[in-house]
From TrEMBL:
<dbReference type="Pfam" id="PF02551">
    <property type="entry name" value="Acyl_CoA_thio"/>
</dbReference>
<dbReference type="Pfam" id="PF13622">
    <property type="entry name" value="4HBT_3"/>
</dbReference>
<comment type="subunit">
    <text>Homotetramer.</text>
</comment>
<dbReference type="InterPro" id="IPR003703">
    <property type="entry name" value="Acyl_CoA_thio"/>
</dbReference>
<dbReference type="InterPro" id="IPR029069">
    <property type="entry name" value="HotDog_dom_sf"/>
</dbReference>
<dbReference type="InterPro" id="IPR049449">
    <property type="entry name" value="TesB_ACOT8-like_N"/>
</dbReference>
<feature type="domain" description="Acyl-CoA thioesterase 2 C-terminal">
    <location>
        <begin position="180"/>
        <end position="289"/>
    </location>
</feature>
<keyword id="KW-0443">Lipid metabolism</keyword>
<dbReference type="GO" id="GO:0006637">
    <property type="term" value="P:acyl-CoA metabolic process"/>
</dbReference>
<feature type="domain" description="Acyl-CoA thioesterase-like N-terminal HotDog">
    <location>
        <begin position="41"/>
        <end position="120"/>
    </location>
</feature>
<protein>
    <recommendedName>
        <fullName>Acyl-CoA thioesterase 2</fullName>
    </recommendedName>
</protein>
<dbReference type="GO" id="GO:0009062">
    <property type="term" value="P:fatty acid catabolic process"/>
</dbReference>
<dbReference type="InterPro" id="IPR042171">
    <property type="entry name" value="Acyl-CoA_hotdog"/>
</dbReference>
<dbReference type="InterPro" id="IPR025652">
    <property type="entry name" value="TesB_C"/>
</dbReference>
<comment type="similarity">
    <text>Belongs to the C/M/P thioester hydrolase family.</text>
</comment>
<keyword id="KW-0378">Hydrolase</keyword>
<dbReference type="GO" id="GO:0047617">
    <property type="term" value="F:fatty acyl-CoA hydrolase activity"/>
</dbReference>
């Protein structure tokens, strides 16, 4: 197995990307951090990477007993994957139980992401959740590498060889071919390829990273599209996320997704994430731009 394909290597690369540099405590009116960019075949920074790095940067400015429980962010400009990203974190409020932070990601002096995050100390209270659907386990499903084996395509190699998460679709992927059934929903199992450190803040940031991979695929399925459909363009516009319970991204997680609406070249994706033992650990919402050439899809 090559170093590129090694599960340990992919997890180490993820940890390296998430380890933003605080520049020895550099500050202006904000706390300043710098993160490396993962190279991408099309030269655009992966949105999940920016979300995760911004979370880590904001987390570095709060007390250690406070973990992120929500974020609301807007992707403002495409990022250049050949360049590092500067993060500025503004300390909005530190209350008795909650801390609020605003994080901006900058390239070339302009923001590419603007995000508000909230952190909370652990607390007790009312507790209920939606039940996890009964679905086949991940061991019975093909990997992305299995689905794309033998294909000489730059994005196919990226999807199968470089992703730090093992993602397994319950109904087959829509990487190269559309779903003939056209459901506005799907589910995937996902986890990191290798073990992660016992740091809940790191696991939550890594989960945000992973949620951006497939959240728009329910839109593609509903309209007979695939990621490789000629002339189709996609972009994440905003991202909201709520963490409900502790999570480990190196254990299997079920990511159940649906699209309640698409119109005006935009589509909305909603996701619920369950641990393998049935705990609802997070909820995600993202609106994305989906533009198709005339006569493509429906």
């Amino acid at each position: 197995m090559s170093g590129l394909d090694s599960p340990e290597t992919r997890t180490r690369n993820l940890l390296h990307v998430l380890d933003v540099d605080d520049l020895d405590g550099a500050r202006t009116t904000e706390d300043v951090f710098v993160g490396l960019s993962e190279r991408q075949p099309r030269g655009r920074v992966f949105g999940g990477q920016v979300l995760a790095q911004a979370i880590i940067a904001a987390n570095r400015t709060v007390e250690p007993d406070r973990t992120i429980h929500s974020l609301h962010g807007y992707f403002l400009r495409p990022g250049d994957s050949e360049k590092p990203i500067t993060y500025g974190v503004e300390r909005l409020r530190d209350g008795r139980s909650f801390s609020a932070r605003r994080a901006h990601a900058y390239q070339n002096g302009a923001p590419i992401l603007s995000m508000i995050t909230s952190f909370q100390t652990e607390d007790e209270g009312v507790d209920h959740q939606e039940e996890m659907p009964d679905v086949p386990g991940p061991e019975s499903l093909p990997t992305t590498a299995d689905l794309l084996a033998g294909l000489d395509h730059p994005m196919a190699r990226k999807w199968s060889d470089d992703r730090p998460f093992d993602i397994r679709h319950l109904d087959g992927g829509v990487y190269l071919r559309p779903d003939p059934g056209r459901p506005a929903s799907q589910a995937v199992w996902m986890r990191t390829h290798g073990p992660m450190p016992d740091d809940q803040s790191l696991h939550r940031a890594a989960l945000a990273y992973a949620t951006d991979f497939t959240i728009l695929e329910s839109i593609l399925r509903r309209h007979g599209l695939a990621w490789s459909t000629p002339g189709v363009s996609f972009a994440s516009l905003d991202h909201a996320m709520w963490w409900h319970r502790p999570v480990r991204v190196d254990d299997w997680l079920l990511y159940v997704q649906a699209s309640p609406s698409a119109s005006g070249s935009r589509g909305l994706g909603i996701g619920r994430i369950f641990s393998r033992d049935g705990a609802l650990v997070a909820t995600v919402a993202q609106e994305g731009m989906v533009r198709v050439p005339p006569g493509t899809g429906d």
